[in-house]
Amino acid sequence: MADNSNSSFPGTNPFLHTDFSTSIKGDAHSSPFQKIEEEDEFEVTSPTDATFKRSNAGDNSTGGGVFFKGDAFGGGSGGGGGGGGNGNHSLFSRSPFDQSPNEGSPSEPSRPTGAAAGQGFPNNYALGRRTSVSAESLNPTSAGSDSWTPPFHVKSEEQLSRLKTAVSSNFLFAHLDDEQFKTVLDALVEKPIPAKDIKVITQGDAGDFFYIVEDGHFDIYIHPSGAAQPGPDGLGNKVSTIAPGGSFGELALMYNAPRAATVISVDPKSTLWALDRVTFRRILMDSAFQRRRMYEAFLEEVPLLASLKPYERSKIADALDTIKFAAGATIITEGDPGDAFYLLEAGEADAVKEGVDRPVKSYRRGDYFGELALLDDKPRAASIVAKTEVKVARLGRDGFKRLLGPVEEIMRRAEYEKPE
Amino acid sequence: MATETVEPSTRNTAPRAPMSPAKDGIYEKEKEKTLAATVRPAHQRAVNPFVITQRSEEKQLGVSAKGLRLSDLVLIKTLGTGTFARVWLARLKGEEERKNKVFALKVLRKADVIKLKQVEHVRNERKTLAAVAGHPFITTLIASFTDEQSLYMLLDYCPGGEIFSYLRRARRFNEYTSIFYAAEITMTIEFLHDVHGVAYRDLKPENILLDADGHLRLVDFGFAKQVGNRETYTLCGTPEYLAPEVIHNSGHGLAVDWWALGILIYEFLVGQPPFWDQNPMRIYEQIVEGHVRFPHSMAPAARDIVSALCKTNPSERLGHISGGSARVKAHAFFNSVNWDDLYYRRIKGPIIPRVDHPADTGNFEEYPDPPDPSSQTPYTEDLKRKYEPLFNDF
């Protein structure tokens, strides 16, 4: 149902200069490396270009990947000693006085402008100057719930499941956790389209909403000028049709960019679901902000991390993933290689060892486990089993080594299997 | 003298900072004009980026000049345009004996700034530029002022033009050139982060100018913000250079500049950024996936630094992980760099721009004339009541 190509517009990039827009069509997905091969021919001719004699800025086609093999000063022989790849005598440490003699002739000052610019470039990358983009500024309120609550529009279970399917392949939604996903779906507002030929969005207009099609079909038109024009053919060419389960206008969830196409209803009656950018980004922001505050508050309580500075704890908070386990589930298995360290966020867990009847250690909120195997690269010394439903914050091996270095000694001092 | 240049309409708009009556009016304006006219050229004051805050003679930079007027300046030529700003080459009137003393004047129409919801960003820009004024690799704010319609920032003129133009023309830079420029940018990011806690947030070749000596100047601080160790949430930047956490809106901080440095180094060496598609949503999809493909000709150290800077998880990103910017500078990619020499500008830049005279604009592209003011959004009384106090810092 949700054809991926329907969820976005294949057409004009709003960041593109119009003069490029016709020449780059159809090749957007080709590998960039082919392009580089292609322009090698160009480089053979460029140094002779009189208007850009000092093309030392250009690639000297060293190819082999040896640093400074090519003389960056465009053929100045005096630089050879410095550029010989000798790490102790770097080009950078030459005094300006040494430079001036051999700088004289080969280094005519450069102009970046002029007729030759752009010549020989592969034309599938847009070479134009890129425009900055910006969305509305959002600030989380530390006060919490009082200021903003996400909108809630009632939907049936069936509608929810269809909407979920419609957006699940979209990368903006793919990384949401269950809670965020639910909040986002709840915020979708129904937009009935009561007739045929209604323009839902118009190419070139400001875009604030993202739409999911519940029923009905919608045609997509793109005008080569980048904006819909008045008159009978003003919409440009029809490029595609969106069916139920499809979606369009997703860029509006990022920032206000001009619409890349015009979308028109085909059926006498259709239904859309709409989501505006501020609501969407606000939901993401609030949940990220709450999660961070929760982790920071939690990490502050963890005795092991008490000696860390607040910003060190906040970096750890960034690197944590929450995982839930049902009561009775095994979090760590004895004998497995160690790949992560865990902080117990909620619930209780026991450490058990093969051949030992009772738990060798018990854990509750604020406790940690899994460090031994990481400290010494040994297999897990015990299994950890969830006693109740458990929430753990997981820190992978890399993060553990990088972020918990300062407390390694404390962890090594911890004692195990000592009857309490 | 010169009473005709004091326009009654502008006199009333900008509420002035409290000051002694003697300092007000014409005397003040003359003082500010003199100040602007006598600011030493960039290359003479670039001594050590980390001591500028202590150099008393540089403290006059970045002031809010309540007496200065647009009518004190002659606008010569457009150097660049943005969504809501235009930058002019400008000269002080009555400075004929100093014909070569020119400036870049950034003009922002208040109505456009409000319409595009950039009021906070513009305020951050002025504040940041004033704080860092005098740094050898950052454009210098000499003074700012306002009138009825617009905000003005008087900046050093950087005659070499944009690195962007050189890069597109050369297609790509060689290792030496790329390392040199990446190193100067690394030092600039280090300074912004460590000394001011400022995230720049819009690194790209278009925002890097070349000065007469071939050294870099970072310009356009429209998205710069003092964040320190906190998080901020406003999506801003340039599509190809946005970090994954900005796209996800999960909160971002200083680490976004290190991500962008990785993209910049890649674009220097390869000629185009690693993530690109005609459709911006596909760019973002690639960015959050974070899989960088390298041309086989790219040197191992270059690949390694790009991979380390372009880690999708900011807590794993070089520059942001423990060791901070020092770890970036210690990377094998920068092995050949003598940071001390670079720091004191003892090395000549790899590209020396052709600058025939200080007011030469030959390295900038041509821009169309500004639109007729009558066709532009008016700054209504209503907007003024609501927003004017926010522009008081200028």
From TrEMBL, chain A:
Residues 1-62, 78-126 are annotated as: Disordered. Residues 172-301, 304-413 form the Cyclic nucleotide-binding domain. One of its GO terms (cellular component) is cytosol. Residues 1-11, 45-60, 89-110 have a biased composition (Polar residues). Transmembrane segments: none annotated. GO terms for biological process: cellular response to stress. This is cAMP-dependent protein kinase regulatory subunit. It comes from Penicilliopsis zonata CBS 506.65.
From TrEMBL, chain B:
It catalyses: L-threonyl-[protein] + ATP = O-phospho-L-threonyl-[protein] + ADP + H(+); L-seryl-[protein] + ATP = O-phospho-L-seryl-[protein] + ADP + H(+). It holds the Pfam family Pkinase. Transmembrane segments: none annotated. Keywords: ATP-binding, Kinase, Nucleotide-binding, Serine/threonine-protein kinase, Transferase. SMART domains: S_TK_X (SM00133), S_TKc (SM00220). CDD domains: STKc_PKA_like. ATP binds at K106. Residues 335-394 form the AGC-kinase C-terminal domain. One of its GO terms (molecular function) is cAMP-dependent protein kinase activity. Residues 73-334 form the Protein kinase domain. SUPFAM superfamilies: Protein kinase-like (PK-like). It comes from the Eukaryota. Residues 1-13 have a biased composition (Polar residues). InterPro entries: AGC-kinase_C, Kinase-like_dom_sf, Prot_kinase_dom, Protein_kinase_ATP_BS, Ser/Thr_kinase_AS. Its EC number is 2.7.11.11. This is cAMP-dependent protein kinase. It comes from Penicilliopsis zonata CBS 506.65.
